[in-house]
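Lab meeting, action items carried over

1. Structure of the two-component assembly. Owner: GW. Status: complete.
Input record:
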Amino acid sequence: MSLRTFGPNEFYFLLLSARWTLLLALVAFAGGGVLGLVIAAFRVGPSAWLRHAAAGYITFVQSTPILIQLFMVYYGTAFINLRPDPWTAAALTFVLNSGAFFGEIFRGAIEGVAKGQWEAARSLGFRYPGTLRLVILPQAALLSLPPTVGLMVQIVKTTSVASLIGLAELSRTATAINTVTFEPVLVFGSVAAIYFALCWPLSLLGGWLERRLAVSRGRPVTL
Amino acid sequence: MNYVFHFGAILERWPELLYGAWRTMELTVISCAAGFVIGLAGALARSFGPAWLRRLVGVYVEVIRNTPLLVQLYFFFFSLPLMGLRLSSDQAAILALSIHLGAYATEILRAGVEAVPAGQVEAAKSLGLSRWQIIRFVVIVPALRAVYPSLTSQFVLQLLGTSIVSAIAAEELTAIANNMAMQTFRNFEIYIVIAVIYFVLVQACSLVFRLLSRILFRWKA
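Predicted assembly:
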């Protein structure tokens, strides 16, 4: 017995809810990217104190489930006398979470740039921020491209967890529609197809970039 | 800033937390073992199997890796009963987690299998090793050694991923935390404590894997 059947309208409703998934993913991507840059700059920077703080932050984020982080932020907003709001909590959690992962990616890319570049910039009179911004980051950007695309896929998939604090994105809408239609194969099959349509092109792009960069780095240096 | 922390009500229920941690580890170990077997079979099928099987494994890997674990979990939990297979939350959780990890393990192990130099396989053939012996001693063991770091970090990710199965009320650390939150209303404190427990579990597992690699890979490469 079901209250509704799963038809084109229900599918359209699912499709519409995917924009909240996309919006959350974009917020996480943009905010996390900026935060990741700051964390990576601390992580390879001259101050030992900041290096340890950044490393500790990354370890904490990567050693606890995103779901628990989400609950901590959601219920933690009461700590600063705010009413818990799914959107605020989800956006904040996903920015803080992906910031740590971006930080690791950018650190890896920065360390992938030849050491001589730092020394050359220093001998030309650049200080740490200038060296990083004008010399290292433009070269590191290319190296960080494949893992960044991989992280984007990861972020889109992980936003589904936000449904568990009641954010009405794709997964949440799916469980709601499943409750009234009781067509789990169709409902979750469609939802999986929508996530797949969002993620697969990115996965292909990531794989392509990885192969290309691997080839170009493998080429012998010509003088 | 007039929030007053009360950890006492949570910490005095430590047997429940311990049980939750135990259940989380149980789910992790079972699903990692099953996922590893799926991954090994998948990697071998993808490298040495017939074309149709390679394609099938490829589809499995891509579908799982490009959809969220939560959706996979819902799919199995809600769909299988309609096909006459009644699963408890725990069984559905183990099934979904194993199939999930299986896809990642397939991809990781395939990279390891492909990294085995062709010359080694040819040398084994010329020494008269059987097909099975070649796969076992010349392909699988060196492949496992090569991908050990990425495989074990995937196992650690799986440990974090098990928290998702609380969505279908399978019994583990996060689900127990959710129950405790409903009973005590000390939500913030509870999730801080749970985060610490996960942190300790993850660090302990990483340490065990590092120590294990010293025992497993003592011989020279």
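2. GW to write a short summary for the group page. Key points so far: Chain A touches chain B through 38 residues (CB under 8 Å). The CA atoms of residues 3 and 180 of chain A lie 5 Å apart.
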